[in-house]
Design goal:
alpha+beta, about 20% helix
């Protein structure tokens, strides 16, 4: 019995050594490029909402430049609450988009929603215009909304904004205020 226990102990130690070998879990920093890593690891891109998000695409640059400023108008919202019930309401909306410097395709902003003369939503967000010409917003609670369908010129900004999870959809019609 003693010899049998000894063999089991050796087998257990061998299996433990095999199972507990550590894998290399180091990942390249987001700023590293594929050339720097010299492997096929997927590189996490820098956050497009932060830093100097420059583009050479003339349309993307024009959208970002035109977007900057203050916009006021109406918003028609449809969203599912925590119980899965579809809700609908309309409100006045004010959006402000700013850039740190000209030529960037991202920046900061603020949304203020007003119902019956009272502010019901006043929240900051970060934004960027993607190479697909969609406008992306990320609010301070990490909720992300995309504006894929829109019309934007120097006087009007109309379109549809959706959350990435599909639980909220807003149609808006805004005019430039400043």
């Amino acid at each position: 019995m003693h010899l049998y226990s000894r063999h089991l102990a050796l087998i257990f130690l061998a299996l433990t050594a095999i199972c507990c070998e550590r894998e290399d879990t180091s990942y390249p920093s987001p700023k590293q490029t594929q050339e720097e890593t010299k492997d096929t690891t997927t590189i996490v891109s820098p956050d497009p909402y932060e830093g100097s998000n420059d583009s050479t695409d003339e349309n993307v640059l024009l959208i970002a430049k035109t977007l900057c400023g203050e916009w006021h108008g109406e918003m028609d919202m449809r969203y599912f609450d925590d119980y899965g019930v579809l809700n609908h309401h309309e409100c006045e909306a004010q959006f402000t988009f700013t850039q740190e410097k000209e030529g960037m395709t991202n920046g900061k902003g603020k949304e203020i929603d007003i119902e019956n003369g009272k502010t019901v939503w006043n929240v900051a967000f970060s934004w960027y215009v993607g190479n697909d010409e969609q406008i992306h917003l990320r609010y301070i609670d990490k909720t992300e909304r995309n504006i894929a369908t829109y019309h934007l010129d120097n006087e009007k900004f109309t379109g549809q904004m959706k959350t990435r999870d599909g639980w909220e959809e807003c149609n808006f019609s805004l005019s430039r205020y400043k």
